[in-house]
Amino acid sequence: MTTISKGQREVNKEQYLEKYPNKMTKIYYKRVFDFALELEDEYNKDLFQFDLEQIKNVLMKFKTSGQAIEVYGRVISSYIKWAMETNLHTGTNPLENVGVAWFREIGIEPSSLYFSKHRIETIENDCVNAQDAIIIRLLFEGIEGKEAIEIRELKKDDILEDESCLNIGGNKIRVEEKTINLAIKAAKQKVYRKKNGSMEHRENINDYNELTDNKFIIRSSITQLRSFDECVNKAVIYRRLKMLSEVLGVENLSTKNLTRSGQIYMAMKIMQSKGQYTLTNDDYKRIALRFDINNFYSIKKYCTVESVKEIYGDFLEQGEVQ
């Protein structure tokens, strides 16, 4: 097998991407290649030279549903075919005769990756700090922004209780009553219990931190404060979710999985209102608009009728679902 330098591997990917005039397609495919970079270095070969087990190792890094894994696998297969057509690769395509079942075995299915509305509420109820519970709730409601900026910059006076809305960047976003109540509770919180209240008090070490009293809902402890009037750093959001995941024993508790769980819940409510197990492009556009996603096609990979039913069952026959 010919050894291909790292620089040449990059050139190969660039030449392959020249086939696609659409900018979004190039970005999407490049993301797949980026996941393979570390393993390309480890195996000292180009992705199109990988055997089936090595390709499997790439796909496992995505940690997503089997349906999405299949899409990523087809991108890799297309790259291998291109390499064969251009005589860069004289071997075979390991993915040529691979079926759907193989991809599904690699994927993490939605029922374990994403959360039902009831599961979200259970996690929230297990949060000692409203400051933590509101983060989970806002992500589920589709309020995030880049690096969670919409959560970090949410102010106490952005709570429009009478209208059941939050002011997000000058726009009134309608949310559930429980979201409003959690936001109010978080805004009033003055003391933050460490490790979700499970930290033992020791001499000279408190089991709590006092929160700064500024205009924001999510606030840092006084000891961590950079500037009294600043919103929290993005790391605070991610750190609190990581802590909850460890303390509560909840796997896959990430910003991405929480927002996707909210999208799946919204898809369920849309189908429930129609009385049909169908999702149209207009339905996906509604979800994308709510969750501030530019391209609704990306939602289709994980937010399907099948994935919704995996989490909520045959909900049309069940009546009201939580």
TrEMBL record:
<feature type="domain" description="MrpR N-terminal core-binding">
    <location>
        <begin position="10"/>
        <end position="84"/>
    </location>
</feature>
<feature type="domain" description="MrpR C-terminal catalytic">
    <location>
        <begin position="116"/>
        <end position="314"/>
    </location>
</feature>
<dbReference type="InterPro" id="IPR055008">
    <property type="entry name" value="MrpR_C_cat"/>
</dbReference>
<dbReference type="InterPro" id="IPR055009">
    <property type="entry name" value="MrpR_N_CB"/>
</dbReference>
<protein>
    <recommendedName>
        <fullName>Integrase</fullName>
    </recommendedName>
</protein>
<dbReference type="Pfam" id="PF22823">
    <property type="entry name" value="MrpR_C_cat"/>
</dbReference>
<dbReference type="Pfam" id="PF22822">
    <property type="entry name" value="MrpR_N_CB"/>
</dbReference>
